[in-house]
């Protein structure tokens, strides 16, 4: 590798993010030369179709449909993976790392599932493996956890880490637009995929939370450890009640450490309107981080998109190249400090929102409330309203902190009560008080 | 230096931040050992009075009133400077760097004035000089500019980088409390100094903006290049009109690049209520960064305080120690890429808020508005209201974009108009549209 000439990188994938990477490397060549000391060129790009018309300028000679031409090219020092996918992509990257190529990836699915294996392979081969773009696109949150808050003990992270669902909930909340209609708008604007399952069911957010929890708590966290609930059951009634009670409904990833144990989940939750995350609108992302010493911080920005994500990728590339210049690649990954310990349901505490329909008869209310008081769960807020044209009343409750175990048992008992017609909805309520 | 034993650091100063540093190093010893591979101890601390009672536990043998015992101690590898002050402190740190000690400082005054000299001295001696804590305490913003957004071209930064003034403006705005009263409350709570001049006149914010502009634009920026106006002239009327027009009044540091030229300033400005900075309340800080590729990002957190600031200091210390482990100290500072080029007044564009008292007579309004239209400055909003018990009217104008030169000339002409009784106030209006 001759620093006076140039650095060659190989690109796997030339979709929206890949095109952004090509564009940024081209546009910011002067800055890259200033930072790194030599030009950076994209030598080979793996694509599915070499004849497709592209938004960015690439020479036909750069394109190939044969992955080996990229990961086996001896001139190429760094592989940038922006093709997506899991199993096949894992094999390519393991192969690249075995050939001592550094890797930058934007692939959250891959890192959530095979992150540990890939990072170990990178360290074993003296290679860097950076993946800032995999969580919250344009927000440099992984670096912040690893370097910026290196000296602190992070106890809670809450993230709006999926732009699609935040866009949908913002529109439902602001304009009362029904879910199906906003989803279509999101698809039209390119904020949602044709098959939106991974977004709206919370799986995409869960992958990002697994990655965040791993780094923030320095603990091995698997995707299966993340409890997930999506936004498809949220009704306009729930959103309206939230507002009325001073809350904003968001799809929130929560990673919480108490003592040595952690919990990680993704679910729609109610945040007080004054909480910093509550004002994160539309397709924007934000990660709220609470550290014992630093207190409350929040990092806000675009969570997706061609150029924001590509910025994170190229910033990682700059990190790899600076390390190459210093001769210290493959030494920044730190193995987890702690053994995985997950909280049991009786150790997970939250406030809860609950909306139920009950028969409008004498004593119904006290039957319900006694279920809560029997378990020592008290109320922060209660609304009771008659329902039109029915012998039913609607009761909305916000509890004080209760264990997940207690709350779920209360729910089961409520469903068994004759006066309870239906439990319409339940949500966690977060962000009241610091933790 | 023996990695199996421990790293010794020397501390200059044991005030609120210094005490926080001692506490964090003590509390997080396990994490530090995990990250660095050996314990970290504070060997010597420079204090003014060795007998003073302290909030943190320190051995009498750690304390000294003689700076040479700290910066000349051959066991000490890193000097942490949290004593404040400029001239004397500069001398100590130059001496420490000459002796090949790495330096971590929280001193914005020093870095704003002598940053370039000190960084050069550090590089010449193969030493690290880190100063994350000097801007926005607990928010790792400098790292974000240098690493996280390394591949982007930053064109605008707006910062709420002074907690005292944000606290005061939040209270004035929320509760209508008069300036003097809120200032006293801030002093009582420890958010403002006994002599609040540096905060309320915008000087503290100016120092931080000089540091941010230097890093964000990769250009030498001196403190004298920052135009400064403080908050002492803000009246409740101005705040009320802001609200009425959908704006929030904040003390904002603005660093803006257009082409190759920059402007840096600190002043009270009006932000649209929906702007991410507008919801930053009380003593919190936030830095909004616009990059050409990444778009809008914002970094939020505590701007001061013992533990948040100490977190930033110790995270910098971890950075120094990781570099020691890798043998790459003194190689992360990057010289500015660009020559300083400041915008002339005719190249600085902003919207302006203007409140004037005029004689309530026929034709007054058109005389005033024609001054604007003569220079091609149009209006976004105008309010005209009669004033009680006077033959005067109050006119409030928000202009569309105008150059600073045009606006200042219009102001002079307004003051010369006979119908204009008084120009009560003018403010920049920021954050409408992306740039």
From TrEMBL, chains A, B:
Pathway annotation: Amino-acid biosynthesis; L-methionine biosynthesis via de novo pathway; L-homoserine from L-aspartate: step 3/3; Amino-acid biosynthesis; L-threonine biosynthesis; L-threonine from L-aspartate: step 3/5
Binding site for L-homoserine: 193
Domain ACT: 353-428
Positions of NADP(+) binding: 12-19
GO BP terms, alphabetized: methionine biosynthetic process; threonine biosynthetic process
Active site per database record: 208 (proton donor)
List of residues binding NADPH: 108
Family recorded in the similarity comment: Belongs to the homoserine dehydrogenase family.
UniProt protein name: Homoserine dehydrogenase
Biological source species: Aeribacillus pallidus
Lineage: Bacteria, Bacillati, Bacillota, Bacilli, Bacillales
């Amino acid at each position: 590798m001759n620093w006076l000439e140039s650095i060659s990188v190989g690109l796997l994938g030339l979709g929206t993010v890949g095109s952004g990477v090509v564009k940024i490397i081209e546009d910011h060549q002067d800055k890259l030369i200033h930072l790194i000391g030599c030009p950076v060129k994209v030598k080979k790009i793996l694509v599915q179709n070499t004849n497709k018309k592209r938004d960015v300028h690439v020479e036909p000679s750069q394109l190939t449909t044969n992955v080996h031409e990229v990961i086996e090219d001896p001139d190429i020092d760094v592989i940038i993976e922006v093709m997506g996918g899991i199993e096949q992509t894992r094999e390519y990257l393991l192969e690249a790392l075995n050939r001592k190529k550094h890797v930058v990836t934007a692939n959250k699915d891959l890192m959530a599932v095979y992150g540990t294996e890939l990072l170990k392979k990178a360290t074993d081969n003296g290679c860097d493996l950076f993946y800032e773009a995999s969580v919250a696109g344009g927000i440099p949150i992984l670096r912040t956890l690893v370097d910026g808050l290196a000296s602190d003990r992070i106890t809670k992270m809450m993230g709006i880490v999926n732009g699609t669902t935040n866009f949908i909930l913002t529109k439902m909340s602001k304009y009362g637009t029904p879910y199906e209609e906003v989803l279509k708008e999101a698809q039209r604007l390119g904020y949602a995929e044709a098959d939106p399952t991974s977004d709206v069911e919370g799986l995409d957010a869960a992958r990002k939370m697994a990655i965040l929890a791993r780094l923030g708590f320095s603990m091995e966290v698997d995707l299966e450890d993340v409890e997930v609930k999506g936004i498809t059951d949220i009704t306009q009634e729930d959103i309206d009640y939230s507002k009325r009670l001073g809350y904003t409904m968001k799809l929130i990833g929560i990673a919480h450490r108490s003592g040595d144990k952690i919990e990680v989940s993704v679910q729609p939750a109610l945040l007080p309107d004054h909480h910093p995350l509550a004002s994160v609108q539309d397709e924007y992302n934000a990660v709220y981080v609470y550290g014992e010493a630093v207190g409350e911080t929040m990092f806000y920005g675009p969570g997706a998109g061609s150029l924001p994500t590509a910025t994170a990728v190229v910033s990682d590339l700059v990190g790899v190249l600076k390390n190459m210049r210093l001769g210290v690649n493959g030494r920044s990954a730190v193995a987890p400090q702690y053994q995985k310990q997950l909280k049991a349901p009786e150790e997970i505490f939250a406030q809860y929102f609950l909306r139920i329909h009950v028969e409008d008869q004498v004593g119904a209310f006290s039957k319900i409330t006694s279920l809560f008081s029997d378990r020592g769960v008290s109320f922060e807020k209660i609304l009771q309203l008659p329902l039109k044209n029915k012998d039913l009343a609607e009761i909305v409750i916000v509890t004080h902190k209760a264990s997940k175990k207690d709350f779920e048992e209360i729910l089961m008992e409520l469903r068994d009560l004759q006066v309870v017609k239906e439990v319409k909805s339940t949500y966690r309520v977060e962000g009241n008080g610091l933790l």
